[in-house]
Queue: 4 jobs
Job 1
Amino acid sequence: MAFRPRKKLSLSASLLVLVSCGDSSPTAPRAPANGPPSISIVDPQGLLAAHHAEIRELVEQTLEQAGSLFAIGRLSITVSASANRAIAGYGVGGFAPNGFTMQIDIDPQFPGLGDVLSDRLPPIVAHELHHNMRWRGPGYGSTLLQSMVSEGLADHFAIELLGAPVPPWSNAFPRDQTEHYLEQARPELDSTSFNRDAWFFGTGGLPRWTGYTLGFRIVEDYQAANPGLSAADLVNTPAEAFRPF
C-alpha cells in the first residue's frame, strides 16, 4: 500500500519552492544552517510536468515530519528529471554532497512513475536529509566503515520516520550471508582507498549494494544492543561506535 508522510502544519510560510527551467549546480559551504529550505525543480523540457505538484507536496511533507527531529534550517534541494542519475530499476535517486545541498533525480520515463512516486520519493528525501544532518556533525566519512554506517543510518532513518519498507539496496543478500561479506570487508574497514564501485555498486564480483546492506545490518545490530536509540538520535555518533567485532 502506498504511504505518504502525514501532514502537520503548512510549510507555505517557511518553505521556499522554486521551479527552474535551467540547469542547476548548487554548492553550499559548511556554514550555520540559517534560513528555510528551498526546493528547485529542474525540468527544462517539462518531462515531469504532470508530477510537479506531487513532487513538491511529497518533499514538503517529508521535511515537515523530519522537522520534529532535526533543526533543518537552510537546505537547497534540487529535483531534476534524469534517467541516468536515478537508481536503475527504481526510478528515483539522490545525493547529498554536504550539509546544505540535496540532489534528487527522477526518471521521467520510469514505467508507472505516477504509481510509485509517493512510495519512493519520500524515503529517498529522508535518506538524503539524514546525510545532510550527518555532514553537519562528524561528516559522511571517507573510510569503508564510515561510508557503510552513514548509509545504514540514513536508511534506518527513512524507515523510522515514514514507516517505509526496507529498500532493496539494504537487503541485497540473505541474512545468513552477512558474516561472509563482513569478513571480506574487515581488512578494508579503515581504508580510504577502498573500491566504492565494488562495495556499493557490485563491480568486482560482490553482489550489487553489498556495502549498503552491511551498513544497514551493522546499524541494526547496534540499535539492538542499545535499545531506544533511533537513527535520528545517532546522527552524530562516530562510525567507530558501530564497528563490528
Note: The mean pLDDT is 88.
Job 2
Amino acid sequence: MATRRWFVQFLVGTTAVLHGCGSGERTVGVTGKLVKNGTKYEIPNGQSLQMTFIAMEIEGADGKMVPNSDPYPVEYQADTGVFKVPGREGYGVPPGKYRVAISQTMTSEAASKQKGRKRVHREDDLLKFKFSESASPIIREIKSAAELTIDLDKPQE
C-alpha cells in the first residue's frame, strides 16, 4: 500500500514539473550570450547590467497566442557574458514573443566616488534607454528551448 501511494505521489510530482509546476502553462528553457561587435560584452568596472525578457504575447493554456506584458528577469554572469531566463519557477518561460530590455547603471559605490561637474546618478541608464522595456529593438520569438546570441550592435538579428 505504501509503495502504491509513493508511486502515485511520484507521478503527480513529475507531471507538475513537466507542466510548469501546476501553473497550466508549458515552459521552455532560454539561455544565451550577450555580445557587442561579436565578442563578449564587457561591463566597465563600477557598473552593473540588468536584463529582462518582457512578454509581448505568449502561448496560453489552449495553445493560442495571447497578449501579455509579464517581465521575466534574467540571470546574467558578467564574467562570461552568459545569461539564463529561469522563469517563474525555474523551468523557463512560456513560448512566445519577447522584447529584451537591457539597462546599465553605476553601482552605488562607483556613483558615490564620482568627482567632477557632470555626475551620473545610480538610476541613470548608461545605455541611454536604447534597450528600455518599451523601446528595445531586441525582439525574439521563442518556440522551444533556445540558446540565443544577443549582439548590442545588431539587435534585430
Note: Residues 1-22 have pLDDT under 50 and may be disordered.
Job 3
Amino acid sequence: MRVLITGGNGFVGRNLKVRLAEIAGFELVEVPHSAGADELRLAAATAEWVFHLAGVNRPQADSEFTSGNVHFTQALCAALSAAGNRAPIVFASSSQAVLDNPYGRSKRAAEDVLLDHARVAGTPVYLYRLNNVFGKWCRPFYNSVVATFCYQIARDQPISIRDPAARLSLIHVDDVVEAFIRLLRTPGAPSGYVDAGPVYETTLGGLAELLREFAASRKSLMTQRVGVGFTRALYSTYISYLPSEAFAYSVPIYADPRGTFVEMLKTPDTGQFSYFTTGPGITRGEHYHHSKVEKFLVVRGTARFDFRHVDTGERHSVTIPGGEGRVIESIPGWAHGVTNVGEDELIIMLWANEVFDRARPDTVAVKVMA
C-alpha cells in the first residue's frame, strides 16, 4: 500500500513513519510542507492512503495559520481531485478547532475543506481532534509542557509552574499512531470525527510531581506503578528525554566476606528486586520469615537450598544449577539457607514480596541445620 504522509518530520509523523516501517506491505511517500504543486501532484496521483499531519501552530504571524493549515490542505485536496484519487484521508486536527482563536479557526477551516472534498469526491475522511499529544521525540520548549518538563527534570533543571492546579488533558503518541494503524486495517470504516485513544486528565502540579518521582527513583530505587495507563506512558516519555550520558546509573553494592548484595528496584506494593553473590562453600540466609516470601533464581553456579520447619523440625533440601530457569521460594515458617556447593561464584536473583523495613524486618536469624 502506498501511503502519503504530510508533515512526516513532525512529532506525530516521525512516530507514525517508524511504526509503519515495522509492518510489511507499506510504501511511504513523504510530502513536506514546502512542497510545490508539481511535487504534490505526483505524490497524490498514486497514493492509496493519506495521512495529513502537516500544519502550523507556532507562526511568526497569524496569517501563516491560514497559509499553512488551510491553503496547504486545499492544495492537497486539489491534487487528489485532479488525479481522480479517492484515497482515504486522515487529518491531524486539534482540540482547539472549537475555539475562537487564529489557530483554532484555521484548523476548523481545514476540517471544512476536507469535509467538502469528501462530499464531492466520495472520499472517506477521518478527522482527529488531538488533545496535547505527548511522547518520545516531541520538541521541548515548543508547544508541549510535557516535553519541556521531561527535558528539564531529566537534566536536573528548574521548571516553572504558574498554576499547579491548571488542568491538562493529554493523549499519548503511541495511542494516536495505533489508532491510525487500526484505520488502515479497517477497510470501509465510516468517515467523520474519530477518537484516537484514551485521554488522560491531570494537573500541572500532578505532572511535575510524577516526573520528579521518576527522577528520584534512581536514588531511592522506588519505582512508581509504571506498567499501565498514564503513568506507563509518562514514564516512557520521561526516559526518552534522558541525555545519553545518563542512560546508565549506579546502585549501592553491599559487600562482606560472604559476597555482595545489590538492591536493584523497589515498588510501592509488590516488593523489591535484588541479586547476591556467594563464594564456594559459603552459606547465606539462615533465617525465617513469618509472612515475607522470596523467590530465588540461580543465574550462575550451583546452589543448595536447605529448609527446616521452625515448629516441627521437618527438613528439606534441593540443589539447583544455574541456567535451568527454576525458581525456588522461601516458605513462611521454614528457616532457609543457601549454600554455594559449586566451584564458581554463585549469582542469584532475588524477589521479595515486600520492601525491606528495618523497623519491622520480619527476618529472624536461626541456624537451618542446627
Note: The helical segments are 11-21, 37-46, 63-82, 102-121, 145-154, 173-184, 204-220, 229-240.
Job 4
Amino acid sequence: MENSDKKSTIGVLGAGSWGTALACLLANNGHEVTLWSHSKKHLDAMCVEGQNSRHLPGFSFPENLYFDSCLESLCDKNTKFLIVVPSRAFAQTLEKMLIAGLQKDSLIMWGTKGFDSENQQLL
C-alpha cells in the first residue's frame, strides 16, 4: 500500500471471501487490520473459529487481524480504508461511513467489482 517501511492501520469493510483474503494479505504484510462486517454474528463466529469458515474455510487468521461490527468505531480508529463490499452496497457503504464520522483526510481504496444492479454501471 505504501512505498515506505512504515506499517499502517487499515480498516477493511466487507467480510466475504474477497474482503477476508485481502484483510489477511494486508495483515500478513505487517499492517494492523480491522475487518468490518454489518453482521456482528458473522464476525463473532470468525473470532471464535479463527477463520472465515463461511466464505474462506481453512485459512487461519493472522494475529494482527481484528474485528469490529461498529462502523463509528472503525471510522474513529482508522484513516485508511479498503472497501470490499458487494457492488450493490458500495455507494450505501460510503454514505454510512460519512455518517459514522469518516475523517476528512482518510484514504479510501476499494476492491469492489461488478455492476450496480440498479443502473447497470460499473463500480
Note: The chain is about 35% helix and 20% strand.
